[in-house]
Design a protein that fits this description.
Blueprint: E1 12-16, E2 21-26, H1 37-51, E3 58-63, H2 74-82, H3 84-103, E4 108-112, E5 116-117, H4 118-126, E6 129-133, E7 137-139, H5 142-145, H6 153-161, H7 163-172, E8 176-177, H8 178-184, E9 189-191, H9 196-209, H10 212-227, H11 230-244, H12 247-258
Parallel strand pairs: 2-3, 3-4, 4-6, 5-7, 6-9
Antiparallel strand pairs: 1-2, 7-8
Helix pairs in contact: 1-3, 2-3, 2-12, 3-4, 3-11, 6-7
Length: 276
């Protein structure tokens, strides 16, 4: 059943500000806001609740504590490598984050106040305006786990930073720090760490003070460029989920738990059916 009330969210907290800005905080600070099954679902369902709230004109999303989000909870990911049903659930929820943020009428501003990877990174970069701290780091770490880059990356990164940079960062899973992320166009603005939330709130307040129809309709037409890439997103998400059922993902999870480099099996004969 879809969540329809703010009080029913377990891992997101909310602050209604008098200027029409709603502050949404990813709130599992004890694990760097890593998304478990419940939180992953909540990150897709919150946007419809915001759109239904007449007191909100703009939302600003950030992370509790010293991180934006450390991505997917390892227990959740490990379950996906062994349980087809769990993989289907996350296929639905990962797709819903992208789809629901694209459908959201009201502007979204992200304050990237620390590391952001995986599903959390999808929320950070799919925001209409993204403000990132100088020492914050982002990475689409899927290949580090042994699966294809499926959470938002195929639909968004080539458009934001160009194909050459997108391929490099998505195939290496290298981290990108704030100044470089701004330089290549992955984020809107990079500011000193202590200014991330104040700057994001200032941008959100400015959007909230504008014509709601003008701002929302401008967002809608700009998102038309992203919607053109949705077929690529669908394939990338399917290939990501297929990867979780293979040996590489199991090794990737084990390597993370043991804090060692992964040792992926040889690729000969199992290249995934790529073009010859």
């Amino acid at each position: 059943m879809r969540i329809t009330r703010y009080e029913d969210f377990e891992h997101l907290s909310f602050e209604h500000r008098p200027d029409g800005v709603l502050v949404i905080t990813l709130d599992r600070a004890e694990v760097l806001n890593a998304a478990n099954v419940r939180m992953h679902r909540e990150m897709s369902e919150v946007w419809a609740v915001v759109d239904d709230d007449d007191d909100v004109r703009v939302s600003m999303v950030t992370g509790a504590g010293r991180a934006f989000s450390a991505g997917g909870d390892l227990d959740m990911i490990e379950e996906m490598t062994a349980d087809f049903g769990a993989t289907l659930v996350q296929w639905r929820d990962a797709g819903a984050i992208v789809e629901q943020m694209m459908l959201a009428r009201k502007p979204i501003v992200s304050a990237i106040n620390g590391v952001a990877v995986g599903a959390g990174l999808a929320v950070a970069l799919l925001a209409d305006v993204s403000i990132m701290g100088t020492t914050a780091r982002i990475s689409d770490g899927h290949v580090r786990l042994g699966v294809a880059a499926g959470d938002h990356a195929a639909v968004l990164w080539p458009l934001l930073c160009g194909m050459a940079k997108a391929k490099y960062y998505l195939m290496t899973a290298d981290f990108v720090e704030g100044p470089e992320a701004e330089r290549i166009g992955l984020v809107t603005r990079c500011v000193p760490d202590d200014q991330v939330v104040p700057e994001a709130l200032a941008v959100a307040a400015r959007l909230a003070a504008g014509s709601a129809t003008a701002v929302q309709w401008t967002k809608r037409v700009m998102n038309g460029w992203i919607r053109q890439a949705l077929p690529s997103f669908g394939e990338s998400l399917a290939l990501e989920m297929l990867g979780f059922l293979g040996p590489d993902a199991a090794e990737g999870v084990a390597a993370l738990r043991q804090r060692r480099p992964p040792h992926f099996p040889p690729a000969s004969g199992r290249d995934g059916g790529g073009a010859r």
